[in-house]
Specification:
Layout lengths: L3 E7 L6 H11 L4 E6 L6 H7 L3 E4 L5 H11 L4 E4 L11 H9 L5 E5 L5 H4 L3 H17 L12 E4 H5 L10 H11 L4 E5 L15 H19 L1 H30 L5 H39 L2
Parallel strand pairs: 1-2, 1-4, 2-3, 5-7
Antiparallel strand pairs: 4-6, 5-6
Helix pairs in contact: 6-9, 8-9, 9-10, 10-11
Length: 302
């Protein structure tokens, strides 16, 4: 029989964790329900334990740190990751598990944005952020993922055990999506209902600071996964700047045969040379990344 593990990272979710654990035990009675408490101060761990969950602890603050420990510690054939705030119904879990266990999907994404997210979510900047991040990643990685930042996902054992967790906070979902796209894991999306947090439950996500971290994560992963595109983009920008600076210098030279603007000529030349260096950085790093992809495929075959 296949082993299913439900992973619930938690930080001060005493208002909702009992209902979440019981809902998931009803839908997946044979699954192991793991609640990883991340320094909660409101008794989340005791409530979860009383509800029937296996409670473990992660003392390094941040959702990414919790996911890292979960993925390292727990062995299963299928993993379901869910938030402890009761915003995602458990009813979609059997379908998501079947996609992993029977169809061989590596990551099933619970797609909120095609369902009820924009009606239920009361934070307009979160709506804007989700839409912007989705468009940016789909453009940069030539994909069509509908929900990049959802916390409702199912994973195969292969994905979990070969995913290098680098992020420490809420940007972990973005990192998962980009890694799956880059390494050609099989991804499938399932539209899921989303409901806003119940009254008295407070979000730990800071719209501005965490949003900035997500954007920085995208930039970092774009540089790491697609260095040629990243560095050649900088190359073209610098060469355009150098060309614009050189226009008046060459215009004056063709008119009078003199170069009175030596500082401008020197600066434009330096910028052009720096741009060329960025281009060759992109070429070299692209070779390195392709080699890493080859090594990753060999590792997956073991």
């Amino acid at each position: 029989m296949n082993k299913i593990a439900v992973l619930i990272p938690c930080y001060n979710e005493s208002k909702t964790i009992e209902k979440v654990v019981k809902d998931w035990k009803n839908v997946l009675p044979d699954a192991d329900i793991y609640v990883y408490d991340n320094n909660s101060t409101d008794g989340t761990d005791k409530i979860a334990s009383d509800a029937g969950a296996i409670v473990r602890y992660e003392y390094r603050q941040g959702k990414g740190n919790v996911i890292r420990s979960m993925f390292r510690d727990i062995e299963a054939d299928c993993y379901i990751m869910i938030d402890g705030d009761d915003t995602y119904p458990a009813q979609h879990a059997p379908e998501m598990c079947n996609l992993v266990l029977k169809k061989g999907v590596d990551m099933v994404i619970g797609d909120r944005l095609s369902s009820t997210y924009f009606e239920e979510n009361k934070r307009p900047f979160h709506n804007l952020g989700n839409t912007m991040v989705r468009g940016l990643i789909n453009h940069l990685f030539n994909s069509n993922v509908k929900d990049i930042m959802t916390g409702y996902r199912a994973f195969s054992n292969s994905f979990v055990k070969h995913f290098p967790v680098l992020s420490k906070g809420f940007e972990i979902e973005t990192e998962m999506t980009i890694h799956a796209l880059d390494k050609n894991f099989l991804i499938q999306e399932v539209p899921v209902k989303y409901r806003d947090r119940p009254e008295g439950s407070v979000s730990k996500l800071n719209t501005y600071s965490d949003g900035f971290k997500v954007l920085m994560t995208i930039a970092r992963l774009f540089r790491d996964y697609k260095p040629f595109t990243f560095f050649t983009s900088i190359f073209f920008i610098l060469e355009i700047i150098a060309f614009i600076l050189m226009i008046p210098v060459f215009t004056e030279y063709f008119k009078s045969g003199l170069v009175p603007r030596f500082p401008t000529l020197i600066v434009s030349g330096v910028i052009a040379v720096i741009g060329v260096l960025f281009y060759f950085c992109g070429v070299i790093l692209d070779v390195v990344v392709k080699k890493h992809r080859q090594l990753f495929e060999i590792l997956m075959n073991k």
